[in-house]
């Protein structure tokens, strides 16, 4: 379990943050489109 946390946890956090960023940007798309008008 310790090896798993050391080697894979950073990648899991990185992927999760990228996915969360895309998801938040997609949800926020309507707001940014309105601001550009």
Task: Please render the helix and strand layout as text.
Blueprint: H1 2-27, H2 29-36
Summarize the structure.
This protein is mainly alpha-helical and 37 residues long.
Characterise the protein shown here.
By secondary structure, this protein is an all-alpha fold. The model has no long low-confidence stretch (mean pLDDT 82). The longest helix has 26 residues, at 2-27. It has helices at residues 2-27, 29-36. It is built from two helices and no strands. The protein is rod-shaped and about 45 Å long. Keywords: Membrane, Transmembrane, Transmembrane helix. The chain crosses the membrane at residues 6-26.
Features:
transmembrane; 37 residues; membrane; transmembrane helix; mainly alpha; CydS
Tell the overall outline: rod-shaped
H/E series: HH
Determine the oligomeric state from the structure: single chain
* Mean pLDDT rating: 82
Low-confidence stretches: none
Tell me about the biggest sheet?
Answer: none
Q: What portion of residues is helical?
A: over 70%
Helix-strand category: mainly alpha
State the separation between the terminal residues, measured CA to CA. 52 Å
Q: Roughly what fraction of the amino acids lie in strands?
A: under 5%
Task: Provide a count of the helices.
Answer: 2
Number of strands: 0
The radius of gyration is: 16 Å
